[in-house]
């Protein structure tokens, strides 16, 4: 997870919505520029990367943060650094579309 947060933090225009280090779990929630999360999910899908987009059962939080939705990538023991790198590369492509 630390590696995922490091890599995602390198992407211009990407904002991680995460608890402080040491309190994080296997979920990376983020926004990218002003792009709608469903558009980001679609672009990543073309790259063979599956993420979630929406309210993630937290609509009141999204309303408070004034966000229409967020993107969410989930990680577990079987995920590799190469898969994190693939996600980062896909997000760089998506960022280029919306820059």
Task: For this entry, give a set of tags.
alpha+beta, Aspartate Aminotransferase, domain 1, 43% helix, 17% strand, globular
Write up this protein.
The chain is of the alpha+beta class. The chain has one domain: Aspartate Aminotransferase, domain 1, CATH 3.90.1150.10. 43% of the residues lie in helices and 17% in strands. The protein contains 4 helices and 4 strands. The chain has helices at residues 2-9, 37-46, 59-65, 81-98; strands at residues 14-16, 27-32, 52-54, 70-74. The protein has a 4-stranded antiparallel β-sheet with strand order 1-2-4-3, with helices on one face. It is globular, with a radius of gyration of 13 Å. The N and C termini lie far apart (26 Å). The model has no long low-confidence stretch (mean pLDDT 91).
For this structure, what is the CATH homologous superfamily? Aspartate Aminotransferase, domain 1
The CATH architecture comes to Alpha-Beta Complex
**N-to-C SSE series?**
HEEHEHEH
Structural class: alpha+beta
* Unreliable segments of 5+ consecutive residues: none
Q: Kindly state the mean pLDDT as a whole number?
A: 91
Count of distinct structural domains: 1
> Could you state the oligomeric state of the chains shown?
single chain
Which class in CATH terms?
Alpha Beta
User: How do the strands of the widest beta sheet line up side by side?
Assistant: 1-2-4-3
* Number of helical regions: 4
């Amino acid at each position: 997870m630390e590696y995922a947060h490091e890599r995602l933090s390198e992407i211009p225009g990407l904002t991680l919505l995460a608890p402080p280090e040491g309190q994080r779990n296997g979920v990376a929630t983020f926004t990218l520029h002003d792009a709608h999360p469903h558009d980001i999910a679609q672009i990543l899908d073309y790259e063979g990367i599956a993420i979630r987009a929406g309210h993630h059962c937290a609509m009141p939080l999204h309303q408070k943060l004034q966000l229409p939705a967020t993107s969410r990538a989930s990680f577990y023991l079987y995920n590799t650094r190469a898969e994190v790198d693939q996600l980062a590369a896909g997000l760089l492509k998506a960022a280029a579309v919306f820059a």
